[in-house]
Inverse folding.
């Protein structure tokens, strides 16, 4: 989270809306611990990471959809057994739970 | 999270103030957020006053350990299984921005292994230090975060300046040539807890030695020896619990009696 502050501040100064996504839970093995965070702005610009690169693309898609639909907060889950997760390649065998929230 | 909470969080993170960001991730007020730091009013809320109060209290404990976790409550902050049975669960994510407390253990003995395990359970970063290469090994103390084969002066040269109120130094060596300099080194830091193992007789002799090297009675009140709470502990594992109990009680300023024998607030 600390690593994201400068970029988020920059976005806010430019009046860009953004979503912060944080890992809130891991079942089995996961590449990053709870608290790992990334932020996505309305232009699709991204800082930080929540996995070894496997789910970031899907998180960006979720975040942009939230901004479009004005949905304030949601939990999303990616796991090996999950079709979508398999598609985005979280193949370490774990399940990752992320909390996404727009910074308002 | 709204702009003012975010601004306050950002300021505390940049100042390295121990801070927790607490958010309801599932439940009636999903997304409700608060920011909690020790000795400061809670900013924001979780949508219910009692839930906010209970979660803020638990958050201070998590911060103390530098731990990030998810906790489950009832919508009004209920925590007991009976209260939760018929109500929907609120999941609260508590993210701590604080380093874990540090326990430095001197002496690579059987008690060390049990104490290191108990300390890990409580969230400590654990360092095991002993001058004897054969004893201070990762194989014997796989739970330790680091092992230093070193004399106390080297250990304090490395860690002394970082030790603060949440940290602990436990001296289990039973050997005056090691524990006297270890006590001396620990007293020169701001560490919150100093405990030294040994019988009352050993401790009396040790106090003489410490007086000889010029330590004052006012310094020595910081030294907890014999180490631990009087719970009748005998095994290394029981002793570890007794020591950890004393560390917690010293931190919270409690007398460490049975709750059934006391009245008043539990936390």
């Amino acid at each position: 989270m600390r690593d994201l502050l400068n970029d988020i501040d920059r976005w806010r100064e430019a009046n860009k809306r953004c979503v912060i996504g944080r890992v809130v839970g891991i079942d089995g093995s996961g590449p990053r611990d709870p608290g790992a965070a990334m932020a996505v702005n309305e232009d699709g610009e991204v800082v930080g990471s929540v996995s070894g690169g496997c789910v970031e693309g899907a998180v960006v898609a979720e975040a942009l959809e939230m901004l479009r639909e004005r949905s304030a907060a949601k939990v999303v889950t990616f796991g090996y057994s999950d079709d979508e997760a398999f598609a985005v390649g979280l193949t370490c065998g774990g399940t990752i739970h992320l909390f996404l929230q727009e910074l308002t | 999270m709204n702009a003012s909470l975010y601004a306050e969080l950002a300021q505390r993170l940049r100042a390295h103030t121990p801070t927790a960001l607490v958010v309801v991730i599932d439940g009636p007020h999903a997304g409700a957020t608060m920011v909690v730091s020790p000795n400061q009013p809670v900013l924001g809320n979780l949508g219910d006053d009692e839930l906010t109060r209970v979660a803020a209290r638990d958050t201070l404990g998590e911060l103390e350990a530098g731990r990030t976790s998810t906790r489950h409550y009832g919508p009004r902050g209920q925590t007991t299984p009976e209260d939760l049975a018929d109500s929907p669960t609120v999941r609260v994510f508590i993210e701590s921005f604080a380093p874990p407390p540090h326990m430095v253990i001197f002496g690579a003995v059987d008690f060390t292994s049990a104490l290191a395990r108990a300390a890990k359970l409580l969230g400590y970063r654990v360092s095991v230090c002993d001058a004897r290469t054969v004893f201070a090994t990762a194989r014997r103390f796989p739970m330790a975060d680091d092992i230093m084969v070193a004399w106390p002066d080297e250990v304090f040269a490395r860690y002394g300046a970082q030790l603060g109120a949440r940290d602990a130094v436990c001296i289990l060596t039973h050997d005056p040539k090691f524990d006297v300099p270890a006590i001396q080194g620990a007293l020169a830091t701001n560490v919150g807890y100093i405990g030294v193992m040994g019988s009352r007789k050993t401790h009396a002799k040790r106090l003489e030695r410490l007086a000889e090297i010029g330590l004052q009675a006012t310094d020595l009140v910081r030294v907890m020896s014999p180490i631990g709470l009087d719970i009748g502990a005998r095994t290394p594992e029981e002793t570890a619990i007794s020591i950890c109990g004393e560390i917690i009680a010293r931190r919270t300023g409690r007398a460490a009696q049975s709750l059934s024998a006391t009245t008043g607030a539990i936390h």
